[in-house]
Amino acid sequence: MSPATVHASSQWHASVDESVIAVSGRKVAVLGGGIFGCSAAVALARAGHTVELFEQQATLMNAASMVNQYRLHRGYHYPRSSSTGVASRAAAASFRQHYGAAIIDGGRHFYAIARQGSKLDGAAFMNFCESERLAYRVVDNCSLVNYDTIEVVVDVEETRFDPWVLRELASEQMNAAGVRCHLGVRAPDDLRRRFDFIVIAGYASTNELLQHLGCATSPYQFEVCEKPVVAMPSEFTDTGIVVMDGPFGSIDPFAATEHHVLGSVDQAIHYRTIGARCEVPAHLQSVLNAGVVAPPPFSRCSGFITSGSEHIPSLAHARHVGSMFTVRAVQPNVDATDERLTSVQKIDAQVARVFSGKIVTAIDAALQVCAIVADG
Ligand SMILES: Cc1cc2nc3c(=O)[nH]c(=O)nc-3n(C[C@H](O)[C@H](O)[C@H](O)COP(=O)(O)OP(=O)(O)OC[C@H]3O[C@@H](n4cnc5c(N)ncnc54)[C@H](O)[C@@H]3O)c2cc1C
Fold first, then answer.
1. What is the predicted pLDDT for the residue at 24?
2. Residues 362-373: pLDDT tens digits?
3. 366 alpha carbon to ligand 1 midpoint, in Å?
4. pLDDT in tens, 283-325
C-alpha cells in the first residue's frame, strides 16, 4: 500500500471523534516513549487495543520531549508557515483536555522584531498576526529589550508547559489505560511476528526504527542542540522573549523552575547533518538527553549571551547553571518556511509512523494513529 500522509489539521480534528474509533482489539507495539509515543499508546489502549510501549531509556520523555523550549505554539513563531500555526491552534483544545495540568497559563510572552537581518519587519509581522487572527498587543516601553536594535515588541497569548508534569500525566494515563511499558528496552527484533501493528514514534531515531522493520527511509536534517539553563534577574520572572525572524535568540522560563532556558539559531547547533541517520560525534554522545549537565564539558552559553545581549541587554547578567543537549530532527530543506508540521503516515499494512512537529499536536496525532490502526 502506498504511504498516505495525514497532517494534523483543523479539518481532521473536527471530523474524528475519539469515541467513534472502532474497537478492534489488535496487538500493537509503540516504539518510543516521548510525548508522541505515550499519547498514541494511551489512545490506542483506550480504543480497545492491547498496547506495549518500548522505550530505550530508563525513563519516559527524556529526549526531545524533555529538552526543548517548552512553548505551546499557536503560530506566532511561524510567520512563514501559516500551516504550522493552523495545525497547532487546531490541536490546542485536545492537548489541554488531556494534559491541562501540565500547561502553565499566564506569564508574559513577547515577540520582538529585529531592525536588522529579519526576514520580515514589524508591520509584516502584525499583518500576519491579524490575518491569522492571532491576538497581540504592541508594547512601546518593554524594559527588557533594546529599541535601538528592536523595531517592535508585541505581547502575545501563548502558553508553556511543564515537561515533568507532562511526563507524570502521560505515565499515569498509560497505567490507567493498561499500556504495558518496557523501559530501558530497545525495539525488539521480532516485532512483526509478535504484533499485529507497530507504531514508530522515535523522532530523531525514526529512520533507525524504519530500517529495523525493513521499511524505506527518507533523509532528515539532524541537529545536536544545546539548551543552556541560566539564572536571570527577577525582572525576567515568568517572562519569555523571542527575537524574530532570523538568526536570533530567545529566552523562556524553564517550565515552572526559577531558571530560564536560552535559544539561539546560530549558537545552539553543535553538529548538523542531512541524511538517513544522525551519527552523533563521540564527544557529544555523553551529554545527549542526560538532563541538565552542570557544568557541561563544553558549552556555547557565552555565545548565546553575547549575541542575545544585543537585543536583550540584561542577558549579560545571565548566570550559566548548566546545559541540556538533544537531537532535533526536521524535514530537510524547510529553512525557507521553517515549517514544523506533524505527520502521521501509514507505511505498510503493519506499520505507521508519527513524525512530530509541535508538541501541542500530540493528541491529534494519536487520534490519527488510532484511525490508521482501526482501518487495518
Ligand atoms: C531544541 C529544541 C527545541 C524545541 N522547542 C519546542 C517548543 O518550544 N515547542 C514545541 O512544541 N516543540 C519544540 N520542539 C520540538 C519537540 O520537542 C519535538 O517535536 C517533540 O518533543 C518530539 O517528541 P517525540 O515523542 O516525537 O520524540 P522524543 O521525545 O524524542 O521521543 C522519542 C523516543 O524514542 C526513543 N527511542 C528511539 N529509538 C528507540 C529504539 N530503538 N527503541 C526504543 N526507543 C527508542 C527515544 O529514547 C525517545 O525517548 C523542540 C525541539 C528541540 C530539539
1. 61
2. 999 999 999 999
3. 15
4. 999 999 999 999 999 999 999 999 999 999 999 999 999 999 9
Name residue 238's amino acid: D
To test the ligand 1 pocket, which listed residue (61, 65, 212, 341) has its Cβ within 8 A of the most ligand atoms?
Answer: 65
What is the C-alpha separation between 124 and 130, in angstroms, rounded? 10
Rounded distance from Cα 158 to ligand 1 centre (Å): 21
Dihedral of CA atoms 283, 289, 291, 293 in degrees, nearest 10, equals 10
Residue 88 phi/psi, 5° resolution? -65, -45
Over residues 322-334, mean pLDDT: 95
DSSP string computed for 153-166: EEEE--EEE-HHHH
* pLDDT tier, 5 (very low <50, low <70, confident <90, very high otherwise): very low
Contacts 24+ apart (CB under 8 A), 174-178: 174/38, 174/41, 174/42, 174/45, 174/53, 177/41, 177/42, 177/45, 177/46, 177/51, 178/45, 178/51
**Contact status, residue 47 vs residue 206, Cβ threshold 8 Å:** no
Ligand 1 pocket (Cβ < 6 Å) reads: 31-37, 54-57, 61-65, 68-71, 73, 186-187, 201-205, 208-209, 225, 227, 326, 328, 356, 358-360
Query: For a substitution probing ligand 1, which of 359, 360, 368 has the most ligand atoms within 8 Å of its CB?
Result: 359
CA of 244 to the centre of ligand 1 (A): 24
CA of 65 to the centre of ligand 1 (A): 4
Q: What angle do CA 91, 85, 159 make, to 5 degrees?
A: 70
Global pTM reads: 0.94
Q: What is the pLDDT of residue 4?
A: 33
Residue nearest to atom 9 of ligand 1 (CA): 71
Which backbone phi and psi does 199 adopt, to 5 degrees?
-115, 120
- Over residues 262-289, the pLDDT tens digits come to 999 999 999 999 999 999 999 999 999 9
State the distance from the centre of ligand 1 to the C-alpha of 204, rounded, in angstroms. 7
